[in-house]
């Protein structure tokens, strides 16, 4: 997946304002999550359908070419339909365009974080009438976890189009130099290996880092690390458990200890300030600045394209000793596809949505090109899916029963922003009472969710 920024990066800081603006703009237009009545004429549903639709997506460069190939194959199947593709449109731009009633027929979002907003406000229309009309039972081919993050409160306003899962990348040359023979499986092993793999310059600054524990770095964030301790965000009543789930205390205690062992926050922050762009050939793992990093399956494609001679391997995320049975789990996220309420041709748009999300050949073609995880079982099991050992790790994580998603709320990523703010204070030593601080974060999260309805 080509992100315009990390999931924990600069777009997250503005999530509260954008979510509020989107909700306000759509409510002013009367959006309430209602659907559109599908057409029933053969021309609206068959291969003889005709018309023009517009597709917005966030992919760029090499990855945009993969999407274009999928669109080209769709147009061969539906020769009467022309798809105008607008690439490089990140989630912020698309949400703003939808709120402004711009005519977008199909939108691809790079994350499920905003599904609560998109479904509850009607920004993406309800797809249930289309699924019913075409007698599609998504239970037959879409895994439950992918179903869960493409609907909200009974409204299925999107379908999954490839998923992301997280794992551990490690440099095998640097492991050999340090005398480490296997990837870490526990948090204690991860910390010990991180210390062994870290080297320092003559002035005491960090040269090569073993592993970055700060939660502002690339994909290292609270939601990505939660599966390592099986920490839950909410209970069944959507009340925050951040202040009561022992996993959070365990995670932040472990993190602070590793920060201290590596030389303290200032040294780590100074090292991070010189980091290369995450989604470029200057990525720290690709250049060898960091020996281990948390990342998604898409990194395998970036490495193959940018540094094919890099000696590396992938493994499952290390887990707490208290959750050894969760080894093999990770964070699940992914692209979602929907029909914005401003679509002028929703019936034709549905044909493209259905093709991108439920067609086995399309999912395999995009999976092979992007190295994202297919979100239908038939594609996951297809012999045409090109899966080497490094990629297979992420296919397995996607199907692991202990893998987690970041919870969906009507306020999008507000709760993640509040946790990220605390994490920065905690890392710097501005917060020292972990238990009371986490309880305060939980109170803030509950207030944000209540405000969002």
* Residue-averaged pLDDT: 91
**CATH topology heading of the largest domain:** D-Maltodextrin-Binding Protein, domain 2
Query: What is the overall number of helices?
Result: 21
Label the structural class.
Answer: alpha/beta
Strand content: 5-15%
CATH architecture of the largest domain: 3-Layer(aba) Sandwich
Percent helix range: 40-55%
Task: Provide the succession of SSEs.
Answer: HHHEHEHEHHHEHHHHHHEHEEHHHHEHH
Q: Count all strands and give the number.
A: 8
Which CATH C-level class of the largest domain is it? Alpha Beta
**pLDDT < 50 runs, ≥5 residues:** 2-35
Radius of gyration: 22 Å
Shape annotation:
globular
Largest sheet features: 8 strands, mixed
**Tally of domains:** 2
Q: What separation lies between the terminal Cα atoms?
A: 31 Å
CATH homologous superfamily of the largest domain?
A: Periplasmic binding protein-like II
What would you say this structure looks like, in words?
45% of the residues lie in helices and 11% in strands. The radius of gyration is 22 Å and the shape is globular. Helix 2 packs parallel to helix 5 and helix 4 runs antiparallel to helix 17. The two termini are 31 Å apart. Strands 1, 2, 3, 4, 5, 6, 7 and 8 form an eight-stranded mixed β-sheet that branches. The N terminus is likely disordered. It contains 21 helices and eight strands. The protein folds into two domains: 211 residues, 3-Layer(aba) Sandwich (D-Maltodextrin-Binding Protein, domain 2); 209 residues, 3-Layer(aba) Sandwich (D-Maltodextrin-Binding Protein, domain 2), CATH 3.40.190.10. It is α/β, with parallel strands linked by helices.
